Amino acid sequence: MEILAELLKESAEYGVLEENVRQGATPVNVSGMTESGKAHLAASLCKNCALAGLYVTDSEYSAKKTAADIAFFYGENVLYYPAKEIEYYTVDAKSNEYINERLKVLERLVNTNENTLTVMSVDALLQFTIDFEAYVSSIMTIAAGQEYQIEELAAKLVDMGFVREEMVEGCGQFSIRGGILDLFTPAADNPCRIEFFGDEVDSIREFDPISQISIGQLNSVTVGAVDENFRVSGENPSVLQYISRKAVVFLDEPHRVSERAEGLAWDVSETVKALLEKEVITEAKERYIHDFGETLAALLARPLVGLYSLPRSCKEYRPKASVSLTMGATNSFSGKLDFFYSDLHEWAGKDYRILVLAGNAAKLADLDENLKKQDFVTAIWDEETKELASGTVYLAEGALRKGFYYPLIRLVIVSDEEIFGRQVKK
């Protein structure tokens, strides 16, 4: 969606922000923003400055929603890094779902760091993860035609945190049957089957873990550590090790992020006290999460932008500039299309560039037909679209939490939720 980033350059307010980021005159605080507008700004700034990004929210819910919004503007290089449960003591049975998702993100960051925009809650930011150097040094590639000792591979996989099972059913598992090694890495959607002829890899095939049917041939498979305690030193590593030092950091409502960090630290302290009193643990670790003050200092060493809905004083840091962006939220029509058509006519009369998100392809087709009946000029928008011409209603698949508009540059983006209303699952 390059054109949506380009159009924002028409805003003098945005121009001040971009210039500050380019000149290293940060932190900068930006106010007047809607929730989905924040996503558009973050994606546009990263695109226009050709920089990676880190977007931090105060909750997991907000992180997921924001990642989905940013993905519309930024594409597949948006990564959602989830928080996990804090381990106060060792448990035999635990879910690795979130750890696998986190590891999948870390692998992407190692391989495509400069092009990514990573979204996470402050909880996820403060939690420990796998040491960067240890992770990078653990990475190995198994390629067809190369020779390996299968049991040596098995031993290395165990050291990296993989669990040996009779049958591979989930990420982080492997199995060996004769000369066949089945392996499921967090970065893969499906496990792979590596067949040996002696010590030589004869073939590598992706397969469905349920049906066991082969999906496709692979030339190689890359494997990295899957144990977040895998490290080369006694220090507690941070996910910031994986984020480019040039990346733009976006703090979504910095005061809320700070308040949640304080709340998390209190929760951890009280939980540890209770576990000690109940003798579930005999002693407390030195740390269970990173200190927010130290983490904030590391964030401020990068270009940092604070995003606010309303103007307010900033106690977390001293901004070098403050920008008020003129933006508004679109109306909610809740299926009342006459009101929607009325707003479209008003925007068209003011020469707005109009983009309407219809959700899925079926809704898009229906909406296109209805708009044509109302004598609107429509066009289907896709990633190849190079311009938004005023007077035309552009329709696209996709969704945002809420539509928004920029009155000074005459741009409006309407989401399907405003048009059709929120769909409630029964």
Please provide a written account of the structure:
The protein is α/β, with parallel strands linked by helices and 426 residues long. Helix content is 35%, strand content 21%. It contains 13 helices and 21 strands. It has helices at 2-8, 12-23, 35-49, 60-74, 97-112, 122-126, 132-138, 150-159, 254-277, 292-300, 337-349, 361-373, 416-420; strands spanning 28-31, 53-57, 78-80, 117-121, 140-143, 163-164, 173-177, 180-184, 192-197, 200-207, 214-218, 220-223, 248-252, 304-307, 321-324, 328-329, 353-357, 378-380, 393-396, 404-406, 411-414. The strands form 4 sheets. The chain has a 7-stranded parallel sheet, with helices on both faces. Strands 6-7-8-9-10-11 form a 6-stranded mixed sheet, with helices on one face. The protein is globular.
